[in-house]
UniProtKB/TrEMBL annotation:
It comes from Paenibacillus septentrionalis. Coiled coil: none annotated. This is VanZ family protein. PANTHER family: INTEGRAL MEMBRANE PROTEIN, MEMBRANE PROTEIN-RELATED. The lineage of its organism: Bacteria, Bacillati, Bacillota, Bacilli, Bacillales. The keyword Transmembrane helix applies.
Length: 167
């Protein structure tokens, strides 16, 4: 594996770490002991999960529709477009790492990471599960994949393959 590819994996790992900090820890420094405490809490009182399931949004587009049905406050704009924006780098990096099918891989990787983070929020009682966040995050990954596709096309088909091999 070449140095460029190793560096790209390191950047990808940093990106996933940043998503974890932003989504799960709400921009505070992650503490392993807080995760352990949350797991212990859920294990001791599993009934707490029931409340989380009841408040989770499993209806696609419900939160998005609600946001647009009234004037959006700045925090709602940030939530709506921020969920897209924070996954653009994920899709871009995934598309470069797996350049054989860049768009498909960007969407797939973004979906899996978003689903994992949303599920962790639900099961660790550290936020709320919202299917719309999953849709918006995956859309951001798709935008990143599209950006990579555009770059690959501008460089030409031969150069896109060469870029994959050199990374």
């Amino acid at each position: 594996m070449g140095l460029r590819r190793v560096l790209l994996y390191a950047v990808f790992a940093l990106n996933v770490y940043m998503l974890l900090v932003i989504i799960l820890f709400k921009i505070s420094i992650p503490q392993l002991n807080s995760i352990v405490q949350q797991i212990q809490l859920v294990m001791e009182r599993p009934s707490m999960l029931e409340g989380r399931w009841l408040t989770a949004n499993f209806t696609p587009f419900a939160t998005i529709k609600e946001s647009f049905s009234r004037n959006l406050a700045p925090i709602q704009w940030l939530n709506l477009y921020g969920n897209i924006a924070i996954f653009i780098p994920t899709g871009l990096i995934a598309a470069i790492l797996y350049a054989k099918h860049p768009f498909t891989n960007a969407v797939f990787v973004s979906f899996i990471i978003s689903l994992s983070l949303e599920s962790l929020q639900l099961f660790l009682l550290m936020g709320s599960f919202d299917i719309d966040d999953l849709l918006l995050n995956t859309s951001g990954g798709a935008v990143g994949g599209l950006l990579a596709l555009i770059v690959f096309r501008l460089r030409g088909p031969a150069k896109a393959v060469t870029a994959e091999e050199s990374i």
